[in-house]
Design a protein that fits this description.
34% of the residues lie in helices and 15% in strands. With 107 residues, it is an alpha/beta fold.
Length: 107
């Protein structure tokens, strides 16, 4: 993360950062503020989880929300099926994009 921040400040055409989870996005939000950068003015920021604690974060973080318990259970089912030599069943779990306030409209 710390290696990324100087390149973000240089603005080499980056428009958004997508984090693998909401906690990383919150950490990135905090660190970029120390550099004087703020989403969505300077860059877009998206997390991945839909954590309930996001209601306390400002600006509201854009995130892809999904059911973490169901995802974990599906992963265990998949692993057990593979270990037992059973056919793997594709599953699409419910998910929703929450736009938040950390993304600017595309221009």
């Amino acid at each position: 993360l710390r290696e990324l921040l100087p390149t973000l400040a240089d603005d080499e055409g980056r428009t958004a950062l997508v984090c693998s989870n909401d906690l990383y996005a919150i950490e990135l939000l905090d660190e970029t503020r120390r550099l004087g950068l703020e989403p969505p003015r300077d860059f877009g920021l998206v997390g991945f989880d839909g954590l309930s604690l996001l209601r306390f974060i400002r600006p509201a973080l854009a995130t892809l929300a999904y059911p973490t318990r169901e995802t974990g259970a599906a992963a265990v089912d998949l692993a057990l099926s593979l270990l037992e030599g059973k056919p793997v069943v594709d599953r699409i779990l419910p998910h929703a994009f929450r736009a938040g306030e950390t993304l600017a409209a595309a221009t």
